[in-house]
Specification:
Shape: rod-shaped
Number of helices: 4
Strand content: under 5%
Helix content: over 70%
Distance between the termini: 105 Å
Number of strands: 0
Structural class: mainly alpha
Oligomer: single chain
């Protein structure tokens, strides 16, 4: 496998993993709306796994691009557009476009989910304060005097 094919393979894996992350964020949004705490916790664990995988893929992509740059005597800060031009690999520009689209969707979904989480926390805090207002500590102490009036 040539270095440009290896890079394209890593980019494909990144596209697939970002797609999984986007699906998880959509599922998280639905779970937040439904207030399904167990499902949200499960999704959070899955997101952590996917994010770890994405970190490893990104490190490998950077390593492969650095190796390609060193082997071809070019700058290590090469962009995917420039890499596609240099290698004439038709997959790389398409994968770059898919990555950009996925990242924009993920960012938007993440912002929306953050708003839902903030509103949920506000609701929980408000409810907690309401119920805490009925606690024994907030009831004035009894003086122990009972007055009765007979007619």
């Amino acid at each position: 496998m040539t270095s440009d094919q290896a890079i394209a393979s890593i980019l494909t894996e990144q596209v697939n993993s970002y797609s999984i992350l986007l699906d998880l964020l959509k599922d998280e949004r639905q779970s937040l709306v439904n207030m399904d705490a167990d499902r949200i916790e499960h999704i959070s664990k899955e997101k952590d796994t996917v994010v770890m995988r994405l970190r490893l893929l990104e490190e490998e992509r950077q390593r492969l691009i650095g190796e390609f740059a060193d082997n071809n005597g070019i700058d290590n800060d090469i962009t995917l557009v420039k890499l596609g031009e240099l290698t004439e690999n038709k997959l790389i520009p398409g994968l770059r476009s898919q990555l950009l689209s996925l990242l924009q969707n993920i960012e938007e979904m993440n912002r929306f989910n953050t708003v839902l989480i903030d509103r949920s926390l506000l609701q929980v805090r408000t409810s907690s304060s309401f119920f805490n207002s009925f606690s024994i500590e907030n009831i004035p102490p009894n003086t122990g005097v009972l007055l009765s009036k007979e007619t």
